[in-house]
Amino acid sequence: MTTIGIIGSGNIGSNVARAAVEHEYEVLIANSRGPETLQDLVRDLGKSASAATVEEVIRKSDMVLVAIPLKAIDDLPVEPFEDKVVMDANNYYPERDGRIEALDHNESTTSELLQARLPYSHVVKAFNNIYAKQIPTDGLPKGDQNRRALPIAGDVPHAKAAVAGFLDDLGFDVLDLGHLSGSWRVERDTPAYGKRATLEELKELTRDVERVQQV
Ligand SMILES: NC(=O)c1ccc[n+]([C@@H]2O[C@H](COP(=O)([O-])OP(=O)(O)OC[C@H]3O[C@@H](n4cnc5c(N)ncnc54)[C@H](OP(=O)(O)O)[C@@H]3O)[C@@H](O)[C@H]2O)c1
After folding, report:
1. What was the pLDDT predicted at 20?
2. In this structure, which residue's CA is closest to atom 9 in ligand 1?
3. CB 3.0-4.6 Å disulfide test: which of 29, 56, 149, 190 passes with 173?
4. Mind listing the pLDDT tens digit for each residue in 75-103?
């Protein structure tokens, strides 16, 4: 059985965990305060979920979701992420994360910052443009004409294929936006951000997007 590691047990982390256990994945989850603070959550998630330390989650999982505020990514340990497929749900909110010059000047994307922090991993943008609560509820069977599509972006094909397979299992079509550098097309304040859209609609929403200067 595939184990999804989740760093962060807030809105995104707990809802991806819920969707994953419902689709027969094992979940290992961590937060900043330690596994003992996650006992209620894992009890609620059921027997396929357990809590662990951040390091254990990374080492014991097949794929790892980073679902912590962007400002905290420098706290992540680097070495345990070697060769791991990492899903990046981050969005940039300066009022929460502080000003990040490279993002303010459109010189980078949130996912490229995470990739730079975790250079031996394979980062794939995922789950950043869906409201957390919709993750366990919006999935539909393959072929349903109303099936929602979620965007991904990444630089490593096998990592993108693994993430696409996970999203498909959770009930979503997938739009591949290309490299991590193109993930700004679904970052905050873009037309696709937070929109429930089918694959064709998402293609349209991400086609002729103008990159807005943040400052
Ligand atoms: N909320 C949404 O609907 C949504 C949708 C798409 C994308 N996002 C993005 O996803 C990211 C997470 O958002 P969220 O709403 O899930 O945040 P949240 O509800 O505030 O949860 C953040 C989680 O990160 C954990 N954390 C913080 N620093 C950590 C560290 N150094 N090591 C381990 N865990 C750490 C926190 O642990 P403690 O509980 O111990 O403090 C908490 O469990 C953000 O970039 C956000 O913009 C959010």
Report:
1. 98
2. 90
3. 149
4. 999 999 999 999 999 999 999 999 999 99
The predicted-structure confidence for 199-211, as pLDDT tens digits, reads as follows 999 999 999 999 9
Give me ligand 1 centre to Cα 214, in Å: 22
Judge whether 212 lies within some domain. no
| Residue closest by Cα to atom 15 of ligand 1 | 11
Q: Structure pTM?
A: 0.98
Domain residues for the domain of 56 are: 3-207
**Phi and psi dihedrals of 180, rounded to 5?**
-55, -35
Q: What is the CATH number of the domain that holds 33?
A: 3.40.50.720
Beta strands in the chain (DSSP E): 3-7, 26-30, 49-51, 63-66, 85-88, 122-125, 149-154, 173-176
Q: How far apart are CA 7 and CA 1, in angstroms?
A: 19
In a domain, 214, yes or no: no
Residue 167 falls within a domain, yes or no? Answer: yes
**Is 156 part of a structural domain of the chain?**
yes
Do the Cβ atoms of 71 and 96 come closer than 8 Å?
yes
Residue 215 has pLDDT above 70, yes or no: no
Based on the structure, what is the number of domains in the chain?
1
Residues with CB under 6 A from ligand 1: 7-13, 30-33, 54, 67-70, 72, 75, 89-91, 93, 128, 131-132
